Input
Amino acid sequence: MSANSKRFDLPLPFGWFAVARSDELAAGDIRPLEYCESEFVLWRGEDGTARALDAYCPHLGAHLGYESAVVGNDLRCPFHHWHFAGDGTVTDIPYAKVIPPKLKRPCDRAWPVYEDMGMIFVWWHPHKAAPLWELTPVTEIADEKWEATEYKEWIVDIPIQELTENGADIAHFAPLHGTKSPPVPEFKADGYTRYSSVSTKMPTPKGIVDGKITVRAPGPGVSFTRFHGITEMLLMQMHTPIDSGHTLLRHQYYIPSALEESKVNVTKALVRETSRQIEQDIAIWKHKKYLKEPTLVNGDGPILAYREFFSRYYA
Ligand code: FES
Ligand SMILES: [Fe+2]
Output
């Protein structure tokens, strides 16, 4: 455990986490990865489906992410050429006449994979429990009338709970970001999904425009923030634990392909503004500590309610 991790006395949350962009993994590609304090291997079969398994071969421990090969849809270990399917079953042992039955059963070395919206997600749970919910596509992206625009990523020195508490921390917006304190968003939990929405009056050169921001977060690993009114934009924000003190944060922005010219500049300004705010937060996160019992006062946001909500992601 690094010194950094000690600032945060929080376990890793379970959920679906983005581990690669779809365009980083062509058919036949293999990538060794390390997220959630775990080593695993991701590959794409000839059929175009991405699959993931624990990194170390159960035979004699070779790493399946180096010098290995994709054969059809399966992964071939570099050491003795055992073949593995995406469900963890052994499909071929070239020098053995019989594959023992226990090697022919799906096993918990397999990582559930979901690919959509240009990203590859894996399900991670500390006890290898099966997925407790599904990720579902976003209408705007699924109907193909929207397109991906800018993409940004940062490695931040903070766990996901602390990172995403940012939205509930109403009182930091004015002093840190120089924005007007936003109204407290309406906040609703449904199973493992968090919804919030906030209506705002946004000043523009053409006068005050009614704006609305809605958020849907299906788990700790991804949230969809939809801006309505002043412009039409969707921010897919992804948080992937590296270890208990570090998170890979990704922003993928989407806009309608037919967005009016006048709104394109507003969108660009919003992208710049969200990045500017994140970078101000990052400078604080780099050195802050998680306080289990913070000293809260009237005017602080629903921080404890948020923590209570988030605790459902801990096993
Ligand atoms: S170590 Fe993988 S096949 Fe032997
Ligand atoms: Fe912030």
In short: The first strand starts at residue 15 and ends at 21.
